[in-house]
Design goal:
2 copies of one chain form a homodimer.
Chain A lengths: L1 H7 L8 H5 L2 E5 L2 E6 L4 E2 L2 E2 L1 H13 L6 E8 L7 E12 L4 E9 L2 E11 L9 E2 L13 E2 L12 E5 L16 E8 L7 H7 L19 E8 L8 E6 L2 E3 L2 E9 L5 E10 L8
Antiparallel strand pairs in A: 1-2, 2-6, 3-4, 5-8, 5-13, 6-7, 7-8, 10-11, 11-12, 12-14, 13-17, 14-16, 15-16, 16-17
Helix pairs in contact in A: 3-4
């Protein structure tokens, strides 16, 4: 285990803000200290994909297989910025995959339970049959950059461009279709590796902002990311859709492609719409 | 905890075979003895949705909230029929939800790690906006019943009817599109409650049988089910699709509707195609 950890230690003074914000320090054999950075907040609460990325950060230190293939996260209570402890457990190391779990605590309150299967995206071998395609959307320079006064602090960590069509909710004209599309990159140019995809799949505005009032709060109950290919550098094209908002609960399905239209990740979350000011 | 357990004890001599096959007996405060029934095998291995249902069976005994809203399962090693122990852990009981975990062991080998958020489908309250629809398919009596010599033992637990189109792989004429559609009910008439949906979402033949040789083995790596509505009695209409089979790894996305076209569950799994006899 120590070999694995040594090999993967985050470089001191990591060059990119994502790596600094998800950095963990070992304080005991399976306990890691993290600092939840308020720069990744939506309102008062840290983004769920960011919290999952902290847990993945700790698991990367203990898994002999490098890449998160499937990451499942449940959020039993609401986290807040500040110190946190991550407890890791390697459940089974197999020939091609490692299964492991991480739990994130703040003052003994459990915030997150993440189970993951790690593998090596460089070693995959088998048939390929693809029918899904990246939709034709305007290039990043013709999309609408999410920024300015109303954007959550979290959004500033990215260069996030919504298609003009799906951005209209921001000016009070929701499309009526629960979909967000566009492009994303880390604001400071960090490459979108498998770890980065875990936060990117939770980075777009909620799909339901195009069918409900955008002031709703949409906390995540369960969040799964499947990383399917090693991403290349550059913009990631994203589409998030919701087909079933039922009694306040919704799925949000994400697809992420490289700029050449190759799928790199699929995500799904179960979330809940909370409209503190009354009905939608 | 004991109150919860007492209230939910499975009736002795449960009327339906699913309930008997997922029954668990408490042997210690958080340990449950199960018997993995070979009647739910695909070849030599128990079906993954069946194994997840055993774990859910134990969690139902400890969760004050009755229904599995979101169930995430990883399969670190391959189970076999016979005795198993399930260790449950209630992670957090909230006002509207309980988060809990179950692990299934055989002879100290861990087979399954399941994390779940339970709630009460009868208490949901919020907006509904639905754009997904159940596709028009032939009624069950015009579909093809999966049975006979080549069907796995597992399939006999259901009345499973594939649409004539998506059943053609079984006579050597795969459609070339990774999709399975049709109807399902428990063979003995058991109602499809939220617990039953956890196995039904893994019950259809692999989608890739319509694009690859049907002798492939398609073990599940990660499996998530979201139960979205209390199902009504009667046939469930199902659609399973795969858009991205990449280097032998695929997602299988499931939708389950009541007979009146109301969505009751969504599922997704990451699986791997193994073709023991060579390439596809």
């Amino acid at each position: 285990m120590d070999d694995v950890d040594t090999a993967r230690d985050a470089p001191p003074g990591a060059a990119y803000e994502f790596d600094r914000a998800v950095a963990v320090d070992r304080t005991a054999p399976e306990i890691w200290r993290a600092e939840i950075d308020p720069g990744w907040n939506i309102g008062d609460a840290p983004n769920g994909g960011y919290l999952a990325s902290i847990a993945v950060s700790a698991l990367r230190r203990v898994s002999p297989h490098p890449h998160p293939f499937a990451v499942s996260t449940h959020f039993p209570s609401r986290a807040r910025p500040g110190p946190a402890d991550v407890r890791t457990e390697v459940i089974r190391i197999g020939r091609t995959q490692t299964m492991a779990e991480a739990r994130l605590f703040q003052s003994d309150e459990i915030r997150l339970v993440l189970t993951a299967t790690f593998g090596d995206l460089g070693s995959l071998d088998g048939p390929t049959v693809v029918s899904g395609t990246a939709p034709a959307i305007p290039p990043p320079e013709q999309c609408v950059k999410a920024e300015g006064g109303i954007a959550p602090e979290f959004v500033k960590r990215f260069d996030l461009r919504l298609t003009p069509e799906t951005a209209m909710w921001a000016v009070g004209q929701p499309t009526g279709e629960a979909r967000m599309e566009g492009w994303i990159a880390f604001a400071d140019g960090r490459p979108a590796d498998p770890h980065g995809l875990v936060v990117m799949c939770d980075a777009f505005p909620p799909t339901v902002f195009n069918v409900l009032r955008s002031r709703s709060w949409v906390p995540t109950i369960e969040y799964t990311v499947h990383v399917r290919r090693m991403p290349e550098d550059g913009w990631k094209q994203c589409r998030f859709t919701t087909r079933y908002l039922i009694d306040g609960y919704l799925e949000e399905d994400g697809e992420v492609w490289d700029t050449d239209g190759r799928l790199v990740a699929l995500s799904r979350q179960l979330a809940r719409v909370l409209t503190p000011e009354g009905g939608p």
